[in-house]
Specification:
single chain; about 325 residues; Rossmann fold; six-stranded parallel sheet
Length: about 325
């Protein structure tokens, strides 16, 4: 897609954590005809609702960010829902985009699609070399089908669909809810609450040995917008920072930032999740010039500060 700010862009999930940052970035670049469907108005798991969405909005470009997401606990509890909802949304949104003559479809997948034991760093060519980590597999495979669909539609119909694979995201505005939050907001909340309650110890899942890579949400938004404007090829592209940290070291960093001084107890009866995650991010830089700008320590500091501010505001209201 050439950078034509008069194009009408439909951003599913545009009111969510990542989506709101993507919308802000698009506005900053001059795009003004932006459509953000809300779940109260359109249930994107229902075909009639997807058809009605396209009939009402008539977009030129679709950036598909809407997803059912959560941490390890939520994925373990609702594997069927995570598989079905994400699969159906992706399949129907892309099919109806094709039927309605949409010029470009930007599919945003997940690092959970990678095999459990992929070589480090994960290269896009490794996506099919094994089964994903079990606790995230239904979600990861559902999202990976968007890549299959995009490549199949490009081959048969000449449909311009691209597929991006972001690593774990974090930042201000993330989901800090119990039970559905991802690793960084879950640890931040646990440390802050334990500090305020004067708890002498807190429990963390697993043994702390797994590693993860994290991408600040504003950087992720930049990468998605850059790909929307400049990338039109069939191969998937990783979006990440290229930096890896162990969960044990992550907990230590968050304890320091939140000033929690208690003991960390590792609950090894709970799953670790994927052993390691770190992306090869060279393809994104080579093909559309994306590199992450916010360092992890700074991004984590901003995230903790945002959460502390929100807690104070909620307590005062």
């Amino acid at each position: 897609m050439t950078r034509e700010v008069e194009r009408r862009l439909l951003v599913t999930g545009g009111a969510g954590f990542l989506g709101s940052h993507v919308v802000d970035r698009l506005k900053a670049k001059g795009y003004h005809d932006l459509l953000i469907p809300r779940s109260a108005e359109f249930d994107l798991t229902r075909e009639a609702e997807v058809a009605r969405l396209y009939d009402k909005t008539k977009p030129h470009v679709v950036i598909h960010l809407a997803a059912r997401v959560g941490g390890i606990g939520a994925n373990r509890e609702y594997p069927g829902s995570f598989f079905y909802d994400n699969l159906v949304m992706g399949v129907m949104l892309m099919e109806y985009a094709r039927r309605n003559g949409v010029e470009k479809f930007v599919s945003v997948g997940t690092v959970c699609s990678y095999p459990k034991f992929a070589p480090i760093p994960f290269k896009e060519t490794d996506l099919w070399d094994g089964y994903p980590e079990e606790t995230n597999a239904p979600y990861g495979l559902a999202k990976k089908m968007q890549l299959v669909q995009a490549q199949a539609y490009r081959s048969q119909y000449g449909f311009n669909a691209i597929h991006l694979v972001p690593v774990n995201l974090y930042g201000p505005g993330d989901n800090f809810s119990r039970g559905t939050s991802h690793v960084i907001p879950a640890i931040v909340r646990k440390c802050v609450e334990a500090r305020d309650a004067g708890s002498s110890s807190i429990a963390m899942w697993g043994d702390g040995s797994p590693t993860r890579e994290f991408l600040y949400v504003e950087d992720a938004a930049d990468g998605i917008v850059q790909a929307t404007e400049a990338y039109d090829e069939p191969e998937p592209v990783n979006l990440g920072s290229g930096a890896e940290i162990s969960i044990r070291d992550l907990v230590s960093l968050i304890c320091d930032l939140t000033k929690y001084r208690g003991k960390i107890v590792w609950d090894t009866s709970m799953p670790n999740g994927q052993p390691r995650r770190c992306l090869d991010v060279s393809r994104a830089e080579r093909l559309f010039g994306f590199t992450a700008k916010i360092g992890f320590s700074e991004g984590l500091r901003r995230t903790v500060a945002w959460y502390e501010t929100q807690r104070h505001l909620e307590a005062a209201s």
